[in-house]
Amino acid sequence: MLFPEEQELIDRIGVALMQRRERMGTAESCTGGLIAAACTSLSGSSQWFERGVVTYSNESKIELLGVPPALIEQHGSVSGEVALQMARGLLSHAPIDWALSVTGIAGPTGGSSEKPVGTVYLALLHGSAAPKVWRELFPGDRHAVRTATMRAGLMALCEALEDKDQ
Length: 166
Prior knowledge:
Elements: H1 4-20, E1 24-28, H2 34-39, E2 49-54, H3 58-65, H4 69-75, H5 80-93, E3 98-104, E4 119-126, E5 132-137, H6 142-162
Parallel strand pairs: 1-2, 1-3
Antiparallel strand pairs: 3-4, 4-5
Helix pairs in contact: 1-6
């Protein structure tokens, strides 16, 4: 169940995408499809939400999104480089205008001193516009990290859609 502020974001995203006659998709790792689920919680979202791909394993990132294995080896699956390639792969394989991707460490295990639990990388792509790739460090347990990641991705997408220059 979404909180009212999350539902408002989804409503705004849906309206903006329909006005622009554009569609979106998600490539999710640590959120396991939470962003896609949030988007599809709105009746009629099939008019603007095309697909969500959960690529939890490295193999799925490689097979489904075309992330080069060398990129994962060099930077790790939790990196801005991999988040960007996940979004690029989705954009190139799906009939969408916007791609939002996330990869991170939700915990409670899997963190390191370099990438502690709560480290998340997100990427947002729209056609030939410059990509937006950023790192977040969210506090809390697994549920809190996943929920905060979902919110951050939705907020960034909403802001980009409402930016008149996009």
